[in-house]
Design brief:
With 72 residues, the chain is mainly α. Helix content is 78%, strand content 0%. It has one domain. The chain has 2 helices and no strands.
């Protein structure tokens, strides 16, 4: 597929997911050493679910914004 908007949208989402998983490893390292460590499984389940909701929204919103003349 050679649709530049599709590629741009997916690059943004790929970057966001990559940053999320990088940050997940960092916060897990620190949180597991605290009292909140017992909740790390729930935290590391809920945050990607929220990112999934963002992904669904973003992949609809961003192309529409660009098509309406917003910044690419």
């Amino acid at each position: 597929m050679r649709n530049p908007l599709f590629i741009k949208t997916n690059r943004i989402l790929t970057d966001a997911w990559g940053i999320l998983y990088l940050l997940t490893s960092i916060w897990t390292y620190f949180i597991v050493r605290t009292e909140a460590g017992r909740y790390i499984g729930a935290i590391n389940t809920i945050v990607p679910l929220l990112m999934g909701v963002f992904t669904v929204w973003f992949q609809k919103w961003y192309p529409k914004k660009v098509a309406e003349g917003g910044k690419k």
